[in-house]
Design a protein that fits this description.
By secondary structure, this protein is α/β, with parallel strands linked by helices. It has helices at residues 8-11, 45-53, 77-87, 99-112, 134-144, and strands spanning 14-17, 28-32, 64-68, 93-96, 123-126, 150-153, 160-164.
Length: 175
Amino acid sequence: MNEEIVNKVQLSGIIGLDLQRYAPEESCVGLDIKEMLYQGLMLKEKEFKTALTQLDLATFQGKAISIFCSTDAIVPQWAYMLLTQTLMPYSKSIQFGDPRLHYETLWIQNIKAQDYTHLTGKKVSIKNDIQVPENIYVAITKELVPIVSTLMYGEIGMPKVIYKKIDLSHERTDL
């Protein structure tokens, strides 16, 4: 009974890919401009510019900043431009909107910046991770489907096949 144990997972040739390795390193912070508005509802230019000078810009150093307004105030577009210009020297990136979406945008940029040529024609399984937003799975799928032979989801031992390239070279031509 000296049977050798065979690692079928290793023999499968499936390459596992963990999407967490592409997550942004910088943290995203939200800057709600309602505090810079008169009664949180209206922009008064002089008060807004004063509030800009009082911002602790060091708190934004090296961070991804998402500018938004949590009230229904009407904010002129130039105010966002002025705020962006003020924050640019300190921030890693600036975007208007939800900080969570900004973080996902950076994550997708990291995915798109990768070179996946080493995965050409390979079987790839994307690790399941509840902490990875759906948008990230969409982005990696768009990158890998054109180059891999098989795209799967889940653990390498029992993945769910998402896409499998069909080999048409064995099709009959005499029909």
